[in-house]
Amino acid sequence: MLKIGLLGTGHLGKIHLKCIRLAKESYELIGFYDANPEIAASVAREYKLEAFDSPAELIAACDVVDIVTPTTTHYALVKQALLAGRHVFVEKPLTSTLEEARELVEICERTGLKVQVGHVERFNPALLALGDHQLRPFFIEAHRLATFNPRGTDVSVILDLMIHDLDIILKLANSEVAEVRASGVAVVSKTPDIVNARIEFVNGAVANLTASRFSMKNMRKIRLFQPDAYISIDLLDKETQFIRLFDVNDPSLDPESAQMTIETADGVKVIDIAQPDVNPVNAIQLELESLAASINEDSTPAVSIHDGYRALELAYLISEAVEENRDKIPV
Fold it and tell me: What pLDDT score does 327 carry?
């Protein structure tokens, strides 16, 4: 049983606290630290949990540190935990800057400790429903729209929302980035609130992403297009759909799926529409349990520190492209 301590008990920190307790076969929650004494006292009373006096004291008492604090604090806390010999779960984004992230990657590689980054959408049941299906997308389209919430506007929508999809798309494309183009607008805050980015990969795949935190409705959808299939992933409503083209007598056709025939230049084909089962999961609990499994099995975390670095690196490439494009627009 791994002893885990929680750093930060704000809105998301409290959710982590509850999820750690649900993951009782993986962890023993030994306590928490919060920089706000009033919040610390309130959480200690409500959850009957020990409030430690400093991050150092908490880190010394556990095997794993769960860091759910503002992004600006991630670098110092992750570094402190790693140098103390502790495994780490840290919320996304990994750090505020690429320089900080690079140093943490180096420390992680040197120590051999496990670091998992909280890109929780990797554990969304709609994405998990893809299972072992062979994916080789040529074109990826992602929309992540949210109604306005003042919480999170201290950073651009790229680091606030789009970074979720950047992590997923990097995983799906499975290729290095070749070129990035982007534009964005600050509507209600001092940083971009809506951004569109086009990412071209070395393998020829292209991704087009839009993220907005100033929308009339919420949407979190990813669409994949490849030679034999169109795949729709609704991360908000937890639905996944495969639409594939088959020869009429193809033995792999699923008789349980919806089908229709069409005339093509290559003769009659069958359009097969399948909706795989999407099993409800507690995504945060699942990502925390996956870190425990990687520690116990000495395997690579599901969302490694390298994954977190790549997503952050791409986010900064998009930010730079937004700035370059904005400079071209006459005021």
Answer: 64
Domain range summary for the chain, segments of one domain joined by +: 2-113, 119-223+232-238+305-331, 241-277
Task: Count CB atoms within 10 A of the CB of residue 158.
Answer: 25
β-pairing, 206-212 vs 194-201, is: antiparallel
Give the sheet arrangement for strand 87-91, strand by strand: 27-33, 2-7, 64-67, 87-91, 115-118
Q: Pairing state of beta strands 27-33 and 64-67?
A: unpaired
pLDDT at 330 over 60: no
Q: What is the pLDDT of residue 73?
A: 96
Angle at 196 between CA 190 and CA 197, to 5 degrees: 115
Question: What size, in residues, is the chain?
Answer: 331
Q: Please check the confidence at residue 56 and state whether its pLDDT lies above 80.
A: yes
- Name the CA radius of gyration of the chain, rounded: 22
Question: Mean pLDDT, to the nearest integer, of 97-107?
Answer: 98
CA 137 to chain centre: 19
Question: Is 272 in a helix, a strand, or coil?
Answer: strand
Mean pLDDT of 296-317: 98
Q: Which of 209, 210, 199 is nearest to 175 (CA)?
A: 199
Cα 222 from Cα 137, distance rounded (Å): 12
- Please state which architecture CATH assigns to domain 2-113: 3-Layer(aba) Sandwich (3.40)
Lowest mean pLDDT among 136-140, 169-173, 325-329: 325-329
Q: Which CATH number among 3.40.50.170, 3.40.640.10, 3.30.360.10, 3.40.630.30 corresponds to the domain 119-223+232-238+305-331?
A: 3.30.360.10
Q: Name the average pLDDT for the chain.
A: 93
Burial of 298 (0-12, 13-18, 19+ CB in 10 A): exposed
> Which ranges of the chain would DSSP assign to H, the alpha helix?
11-22, 37-47, 55-60, 71-83, 98-111, 125-128, 157, 163-173, 283-297, 305-328
pTM: 0.92
